[in-house]
Amino acid sequence: MDKRENSIEISKTEFRKMGYQLIDTISDFLDDISNQPVTTTKSIKELQQLLGNSSLPNKGVSADELLISTSKLLFDNSLLNGHPKFFGFITSSAAPIGALADLLAASVNPNVGGQILSPIATEIEKQTITWLAEFIGVSPSYGGVLVSGGNMANFTAFLAARTAKAPKSIKENGLSNTSKQLISYCSKSTHTWIDKAAILFGHGSNSIRWIPTDASNKMNIKALEQSIKEDITQGHQPFMVVGTAGDVSTGVVDNLQAVAAVCKTHDLWFHIDGAYGIPAAVIPELKDLFNGVEEADSIALDPHKWLYSPLEAGCTLVKNPKHLIDTYSSHPEYYNFSLTEEGGALNFFEYGLQNSRGFRALKVWLALQQIGRDGYVKLIREDISLSKYFAELAEQHSELEPVTHNLSIATLRYIPQNLEVKGEKRAEYLNTLNEALVNGLQAEGELFLSNAIIDEKYCMRACIVNFRTTKKDIEECIEIIVKEGRKLHSSHSLT
Length: 495
Prior knowledge:
Largest sheet: 7 strands, mixed
Strand order of the largest sheet: 1-7-6-5-4-2-3
Order of helices and strands: HHHHHEHHEHEHEHEEHEHHEEHEEH
Low-confidence stretches: none
Strand content: 5-15%
Number of helices: 15
């Protein structure tokens, strides 16, 4: 038998035909995305009905038919984070070259765990890591690994920090045999990943010190120093401080230089959670805001946030990559992956939690080249300017209250005119009203905002990491928010 007969293979002619048709369909979708609803208005039950409840088919369906029906299913029933009025959470509008990169990567399908399994893909990921370090203003000698997103990027650094700072016997004896409790520190506005890491990796949530913030919502450095000293006095072992470069609620950047100095004084690992905000370090006029980034032992960033990569693309950068090898390297006898090749071979399975790894780097690598540093400076600067415009329009409107603006995140509230409710009832009513407004806007599909709680105020939160958004979109969103706010307020029984 020269060739196996099966239903999985697609002939060159058919593959080309279906591929061209799919690319045409995707091109039309992207070209018309601004005219579509931001998200589906169908209920979960309606979505389930679209799929039906039939059992797994015994006989296959033609690939051509499946691609046509599935394209429509996705385009008509998804939340479109590429829509110019999508400002929720922090998922960017994805660069089209990233979609083509994922197709190309999947076609070759390298396993970027071992160099021998992915010769050129490994080199591309290494170069991507170097470029990302240069991009945010740290030494290109930082090493790192691409992961799925912010949680995994931060987890990867957390475990490297523990290996570097914990007693050397921890690998053999575990946490239960250490005489001192390992303590980590972060501001109260740090993303919930730190809580998850402490729990999943055996430290317990009580091992985290949530440091209060100052009036500008940055970590209080005096409180940090005091907490570290108290823990040392009580016989604990501080090992890690997390500084935030763009917190997810308001975009605030901690005083990274001051945090670095505290870490140096007490010999602690300095980690920066820059999953959202650290790409803004490329903007010349914001350089001072990120002073101290070069002192970090590790940095988390997400290209699928503010570098416009398709999901999934997170990254952990480490000043001394040996800490990753110390943490993750394992050599069972069935691993025949030599690292003796001239030129510095690297097996990425030694840098993180995964052994089998997809080719995430390609879409980031291609976008970095297509857009270039100057292109990113322009795009990120424009996103920041648009979020500032959002806050300015809210300031000018009698029924809106801007609350914060940092980087590309603006928060605001809807406040009805002539609201007669006073005191605690007023605060309670406005929180209830704005929560209902966020939920309503998310469900109706005209725009998509998320929320933030700031000084006990429930706020609407717009995060702009979207190269399709324009001033016109912002203006239209202000109108939609006020229109829906009035509608909700007029139907509310409290007033």
